[in-house]
Amino acid sequence: MAQDAIEELVKLNQTKKLDDMSENERQHYYQLQRQSGTNQSVVEYLHGVILYSEKNYALAFNHLKKAESLGYLHPKLYNQIGNVYVKMHQIREARGCFAHVLTIDKNNASAYLGLCLCSLAEHEYEKAAHDALSAIGYQYFFPEAHYHLGRAFYDLN
Fold first, then answer.
1. Could you tell me which of 64, 66, 93, 68 has the C-alpha nearest to residue 80?
2. Would you give the distance in Å from CA 99 to the centre of its chain?
3. Cβ atoms of 126 and 156 closer than 8 Å
């Protein structure tokens, strides 16, 4: 039964995007995912990540929030939602997401980088440098954090 559901899912994925399906087709799709053992919350998270990389931030946000509502409460999810908020210039909401990650994992380098991006957006360069240094302290081989640390130092002058 699971194998049949997987085969039908593969066929559906080759012919239609989820966003182009009718409500009935989506319900059937979700039922097939449940039968196949697919974790729908992870699928929604990954769909959000793909849409973010395609710069479709509004749709990415919808999928990420759907992943959250389905129970995917991983720090990566909140970092990604925070990144979407940064791209949509909703800095206060972004800060809230990154701060939430730090309540789950106080050593999360990506959350500190997110806080750095928020500070850069608000022209708080000293705080941005501090957050970038924190990110680097937790994950030294993090080129993006080094880059934003340089930006913060450059803009301090």
1. 64
2. 14
3. yes
CA 109 – CA 9 distance, rounded (Å): 36
Q: Which pTM does this prediction carry?
A: 0.81
Question: Residue length, the chain?
Answer: 157
CA R_g for the chain? 19
CB 116 within 8 A of CB 122: no
> Are 80 and 44 within 8 A, CB to CB?
no
Split at pLDDT 50, 70, 90, the class of 1 is low
Residue 17: the pLDDT is 81
How many whole angstroms separate alpha carbon 137 and alpha carbon 149? Answer: 12
Domain spans, the chain:
1-38
Structure tokens at 15: 């012919």
Count CB atoms within 10 A of the CB of residue 44.
Answer: 22
**Residue 110 CB neighbours (<10 A):** 23
What is the SS3 assignment for 56? coil
Q: pLDDT tens digits for 89-101?
A: 999 999 999 999 9
pLDDT digits (tens, 9 = 90+) for 5-35: 778 877 887 888 877 888 998 888 888 878 8
